């Protein structure tokens, strides 16, 4: 009898794995139909920074803390993108770039893998909460196939945020396991926090806020085993610190030593009329953050679940359903957010970003509802709902993919294997993470100024080589940015000069005639922390897999004895 159960479970796992692969494939395919990808400026920026890291690994080097290659044409070589914007989980996009000579195949595989991780993540959370597979499947569909997710994933191409979106459910899984006194819950919470800090700082701060709320809840309402749960949270913090040591060090080191141009602070709430029109028109264009929508079917599910909460008795799903609708409507412009435009909330910029909380809560709430009301719910109805959600989101993606170009799109264009590298290297994107008040010598860019000509003749992730001609001996400012706390080596016509960064451009002495200048960043100790973070992650994953198989083996023994 036990052998039959094992065989059945095996085939169930295989079937679910195939479903997962199919869902990930259809989530990805339409974004690449026609042999091109509809790319935003955000997307070009992210692909450039990942390509910089990939080039380092291709040359068997560790990535530098600053970027010398694939930098936006309105920024400068030496900008510290690798220090300020975490890249470690971007390995999802970096490894395929190393494996494929065709960058579009690499990009397709990267998004395919990212979608797999997103589905596995939400599946892990929901499977822990309910054994009802239809409930779990429905929750996965809501979290994966909603228009907001596709806005982030394919319209904004905000790759950092979408990777964080994939890992975010694990934060809740870790917290729930700790709350249920699972002795290994701290590993999941620590893993998720470590992944987020290595992915997207804003989403990481969301997670920190959730953990703080959880601690307050424990102290005020659930003091049973309080000490044990607090110890678990502390242990998870230690795990996260080891995983994020490289990223945390680089951020703290650069911020404390430099005055950096801060991102703009503002609050754009959702517009009722704008969201209504984008919902009805099934649009996922990124421009107009006040119009971001979850899609018609998912929005109707939010409204239905929230309304249903009013007429039913208290249950697990009611908490999540109530939160989903209340939080969703709190993101709209009828609340005077201008009164707090200078608060911490202004760092979020677009309140549409907070739809991630609505969607994860809705996924849990719907899963619970199907589980506890399974006798009153028709399977065909739920299956039909899932099909409708998938069709609507894929239809929105298809229309966006072929039509969202030109004026009013923020510079969206087609990227393919022929123009891939040219677009990354020659697109005007962002000037993020530059030191404040850079002294710019605009005359340097004028070729007729004292007959000086400057051009890049060679660049790699480790060093950049300039050729400069001057009609006379003169001091010259090279548009290569430096940072306090970093050391540089400048070779000018064979003579090496060591200098500390000062938050300004590099100045050299040009001699009459042709000059050759080579600039590179000296060895940085953070590379050792990168090794620590990588080894910590490998050890943690191996240990968690070992625990998983050990528990499965113990369960098998129990079944065999009964």
Model description:
The protein has helices at 2-29, 41-58, 81-84, 91-99, 103-129, 133-144, 147-155, 159-179, 185-197, 201-221, 226-257, 272-280, 296-309, 316-329, 355-372, 379-403, 420-425, 526-561; strands at 37-39, 267-268, 349-350, 413-415, 453-459, 463-470, 474-481, 487-492, 495-500, 505-510, 513-521. Helix 6 (133-144) packs parallel to helix 16 (379-403). It is globular and about 90 Å long. With 562 residues, it is α+β, with helices and mostly antiparallel strands. The strands form four sheets. Strands 5-6-11-8-9 form a five-stranded antiparallel β-sheet, with no helix packed on it. A two-stranded antiparallel ribbon has the order 1-4. The longest helix is centred in the last third of the chain and has 36 residues, at 526-561. It comes from Leuconostoc inhae. Keywords: Membrane, Transmembrane, Transmembrane helix. The chain crosses the membrane at residues 12-32, 84-100, 107-129, 153-176, 188-221, 233-252, 292-312, 319-337, 349-372, 379-398, 527-546. This is Membrane protein 6-pyruvoyl-tetrahydropterin synthase-related domain-containing protein.
Q: Low-confidence parts lasting 5 or more residues at pLDDT below 50?
A: 442-451
Total DSSP E strands: 11
Helical amount: 55-70%
Q: Give the biggest sheet.
A: 5 strands, antiparallel
Biggest β-sheet: strands ordered side by side in the sheet: 5-6-11-8-9
The secondary structure category is alpha+beta
Tell me the overall shape: globular
Roughly how many Å apart are the termini?
Answer: 10 Å
How confident overall, as mean pLDDT? 90
Number of H- or I-type helical stretches: 18
Order of helices and strands: HEHHHHHHHHHHEHHHEHHEHEEEEEEEH
- Give the DSSP E fraction (strand runs of 2 or more residues): 5-15%
Query: C-alpha Rg, in Å?
Result: 26 Å
């Amino acid at each position: 009898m036990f052998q039959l159960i094992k065989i059945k479970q095996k085939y169930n796992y295989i079937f679910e794995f195939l479903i997962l692969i199919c869902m990930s494939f259809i989530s990805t395919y339409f974004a690449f139909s026609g042999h091109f990808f509809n790319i935003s400026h955000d997307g070009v920026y992210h692909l450039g920074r990942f390509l910089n890291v990939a080039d380092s690994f291709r040359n068997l080097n560790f990535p530098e803390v600053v970027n010398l290659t694939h930098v936006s044409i309105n920024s400068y070589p030496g900008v510290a993108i690798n220090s300020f914007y975490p890249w470690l989980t971007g390995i999802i996009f970096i490894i395929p770039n190393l494996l494929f000579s065709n960058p579009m195949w690499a990009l397709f595989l990267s998004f395919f893998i990212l979608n797999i991780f997103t589905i596995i993540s939400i599946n892990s959370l929901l499977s822990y909460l309910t054994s009802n597979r239809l409930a779990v499947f429905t929750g996965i569909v809501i979290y994966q196939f909603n228009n907001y997710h596709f806005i982030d994933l394919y319209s904004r191409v905000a790759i950092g945020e979408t990777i964080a979106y994939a890992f975010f459910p694990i934060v809740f899984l870790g917290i729930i396991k700790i709350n249920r006194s699972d002795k290994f819950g701290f590993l999941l919470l620590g893993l998720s926090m470590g992944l987020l800090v290595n992915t997207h700082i804003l989403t990481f701060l969301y997670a920190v806020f959730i953990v703080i709320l959880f601690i307050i809840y424990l102290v005020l309402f659930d003091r049973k085993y309080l000490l044990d749960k607090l110890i678990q949270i502390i242990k998870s913090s230690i795990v996260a610190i080891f995983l994020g040591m490289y990223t945390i060090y680089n951020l703290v080191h650069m911020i404390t030593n430099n005055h950096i141009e801060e991102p703009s602070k503002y609050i754009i709430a959702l517009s009722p009329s704008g969201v209504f029109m984008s919902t009805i028109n099934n649009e996922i264009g990124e421009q107009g953050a006040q119009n971001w929508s979850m899609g018609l079917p998912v929005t109707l599910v939010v409204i239905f679940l929230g309304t249903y909460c009013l007429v039913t008795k208290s249950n697990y799903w009611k908490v999540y359903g109530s939160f989903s609708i209340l939080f969703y409507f709190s993101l709209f412009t009828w609340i005077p957010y201008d009164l707090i435009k200078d608060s911490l909330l202004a760092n979020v910029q677009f309140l549409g970003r907070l739809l991630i909380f609505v969607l994860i809560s809705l996924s849990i709430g719907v899963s619970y509802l199907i589980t506890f009301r399974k006798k009153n719910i028709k399977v065909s109805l739920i299956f039909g709902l899932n099909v409708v959600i998938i069709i609507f989101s894929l239809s929105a993606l298809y229309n966006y993919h072929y039509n969202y170009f030109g004026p009013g799109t923020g510079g969206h264009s087609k990227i393919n294997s022929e123009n891939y590298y040219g677009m990354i290297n020659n697109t005007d994107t962002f000037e993020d993470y530059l030191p404040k008040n850079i002294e710019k010598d605009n005359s340097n860019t004028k070729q007729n100024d004292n007959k000086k000509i400057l051009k890049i003749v060679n660049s790699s992730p480790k060093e950049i080589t300039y050729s400069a001609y001057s009609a006379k001996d003169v001091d010259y400012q090279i548009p290569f940015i430096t940072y306090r706390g970093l050391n540089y080596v400048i070779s000018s016509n064979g003579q090496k000069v060591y200098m500390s960064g000062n938050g300004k451009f590099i100045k050299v002495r040009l001699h009459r005639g042709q000059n050759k200048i080579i600039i590179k960043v000296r060895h940085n100790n953070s590379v050792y922390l990168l090794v620590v973070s990588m080894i910590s992650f490998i050890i943690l994953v191996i240990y968690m897999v070992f625990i998983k198989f050990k528990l499965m083996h113990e369960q098998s023994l129990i079944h065999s004895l009964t």
